[in-house]
Amino acid sequence: MRVVIAEDLFLLRDGLIRMLEAHGFEVAAAVDTGAGLLAAVDEHRPDAAVVDVRLPPTFTDEGLRAALEARRRVPGLPVLVLSQYVEQIYARELLADGSGGVGYLLKDRVFDSAQFADALRRVAGGGTAMDPEVISRLLARNADDSDLGGLSPREREVLELMAEGRSNAAIAQRMVITERAVAKHTSSIFTKLALQPSDDDNRRVLAVLAYLGR
Amino acid sequence: MTGNTAAPGKAIAPRQRGSWIGARLLGSVHGLAFVGLALAEAGLILALALELSFAIFVYPLLFIPPTLLAVRRLASVVRRLSGEWCGVPIPEPYRPFREPSPRAGTWRRFGQASGQLITEPATWRDLLWMTLDPLLIWLLPAIPVTIAGWGLFGVLMPAYWDPIVQAGGNNWYAFIPVTNWLTALLSVPLGLAFIALGLWLVPYFLRWYGQAARSMLAPTKQVALEQQVVHLSETRAEVVDTGAAEIRRIERDLHDGAQARLVAMGMTLSAAEQVIDDNPAAARALLLEARDSSAKALTELRDLVRGIHPPVLADRGIGEAVRALAMDTGRNIQVTNELPGRPPAPVESAAYFAVSELLANVSKHAGASHVWIDMRYERGMLRIDVGDDGQGGADPSQGTGLRGIERRLSAFDGILALSSPPGGPTVATLELPCELSSPKTSSF
User: Contacts from A152-158 at CB under 8 Å and sequence distance 24+?
Assistant: First the structure.
């Protein structure tokens, strides 16, 4: 699997390259600016891009805007955005086109390299990987929300794990229930959020969007 | 009256409301009230004149300071009314009053207070104003009211023209000699015209009156400068204090948080180094522990930075940052952003933390179901409204939160106004003078 990395800190960029190569990824290019990312995406057409939010020259949300622009140019390009902070407002912008293949993780998550590689593979496969911190802040705010009020606590928990990007098998293992039970919960979630039956991956993304949206 | 609290000498103009005719009728009432004020002023001047003429008996002089104090109070009433009724707010021109020592005797205290009153230049300007004002009131606010009253006399003419003529009165209404029913009825439309004219003139005359009052009652340029110096040194001291307190807090947070975690991490790592050959399993456990420590240190640093300068604020500016803030509260808050550009970073930061505090207040007290935030740029001011439909009755003198916001804003000559009638809605408005920079254009 070929990836492009955009990260301006040399140490982190170097670490990411070594880690991803150790997990069997091929790093096609590693750049340090948003413009560089766009050029690299154009040139290499990677399977996924790993992008830091804060990049030169502005050191603001340059990387995020470059990632969004890259997805406009190459629709469906899987992008995993890394940041020192996770903000709901950015999570929404990433998910806004509803096509999936989006990840948004704290830089801390690279500590667990196996999990990080796993998240990147999920994103490259068209799934989502939202940082648990985004999810927990959403949970805090949606505690008394009416829109998702129709969901049972169990279903909320499933949706939460789904938003992090976990598969049914992983959710089953985490919640200590059978995979069949998870499947029952997810289909009940889809019904309650009025999501038309279609390809399962896409519905998962839409469910997460419903969760993050509004 | 609205429950506005603003820094002295500044006010956020209340929005115009009510109908054309209603506003003007109210204006006429205000004009009449000014006439009442003229009587009080004339009375005070007369009292002062009497006290001075009997100065030979010495003891009437004792009444002069209390009279001067009354003059000051009355002048302050005129200042307030000029702002509320005439739309011309007038700041106080007086130097700060130095409280006489409480240990001094009654006479001494009286002497000190009187001394301050007499040496205050604004007192003498007040006195001059008070001598002229009764005349001015008859010239300005009273004229349109008189015209309207004269109109009313004409409109009601059919009711009483006959007795007047019977009594042999020379009954001219303006240019109409009213001697029979026809002329009495003719005076009705003329009277209506006078009423309309009078009402139309009311706001202009009130405004002119307010401007005349300001020319005498407002601080002179020198006093205004003195007041500004006092204000600046106060706000500077507050800014320095809060800045120092903030740095102390950051230092403590770093010391107890991230720094301590890094120390622990180093110790764990060296412990792992020692056992790695003999006991790889234990070393692995220690390494995991070190990793957890570093994750915790990162979390703490993140929270700290969020409190100093929120990332979205740095990235996107006040508009998006407030939107993110509204999202984080977990309520459905309607955010309207009409800012054409970005204010300077320090102003943005002050506004952001003020809004953050206001939102915290809303969720603590208001019991509101609908909350809205409006951001605009008007006449060189960043203006943000935070409103809710809660129970209202917020009192700025209670609680330190609003005071803290005022302090933060005052460093930028910004102000906070709160309107919170019992039963709501509550609207807090903050205004910060600033320049906007043009929005950053995307580099892609």
Answer: A154/A185, A155/A185, A155/A188, A155/A189, A155/A192, A158/A182, A158/A185, A158/A186, A158/A189
Cα–Cα dist B407/B405, whole Å: 5
State the pLDDT at residue A214.
44
Distance from CA of B236 to the nearest CA of A (A): 31
- Write down how long chain B is: 444
Is the Cβ of A62 closer than 8 Å to some Cβ of chain B? yes
Q: Where are the domains of chain A?
A: 2-132, 142-212
Burial of B221 (0-12, 13-18, 19+ CB in 10 A): exposed
CATH class of the domain whose range is A142-212? mainly alpha
* Cβ-Cβ contacts under 8 Å for B117 (sequence gap 6 or more): B65, B68, B69, B72, B123
Whether pTM exceeds 0.90: no
| pLDDT, tens digit (0-9, with 9 covering 90-100), for A146-168 | 456 677 888 888 888 887 777 88
Nearest-by-CA chain A residue for B295: A108
Cβ-proximal residues to B160 (8 Å cutoff; 6+ apart), any chain: none
* Residues B254-257: contacts with CB under 8 Å, at least 24 apart: B254/B304, B257/B297, B257/B300, B257/B301, B257/B304
Q: Which of A23, A21, A14, A5 is nearest to A117 (CA)?
A: A23
Spatial distance between the Cα atoms of A46 and A1, rounded to a whole number of angstroms: 8
Domain A2-132 bears CATH identifier 3.40.50.2300: yes
Residue type, B114: S
Length of chain A: 214
For residue A79, list its beta bridge partners.
Answer: A49, A102
Model confidence pLDDT, tens digit, residues B323-351: 988 887 767 789 999 999 999 998 999 99
State the burial class of residue B113 (Cβ atoms within 10 Å of its Cβ: 0-12, 13-18, 19+).
middle
Confirm if B416 and B319 have CB atoms less than 8 A apart: no
Among A42, A52, A58, A60, the strongest candidate for a mutation testing the B interface, having the largest count of B CBs within 10 A, is A60
- Quick check: bond before B89 cis, omega within 30? no
What's CA B232's distance to the chain center, in Å?
18
State the pairing for strand pair A2-6/A26-31: parallel
> A42 — contact with chain B (CB < 8 Å)?
no
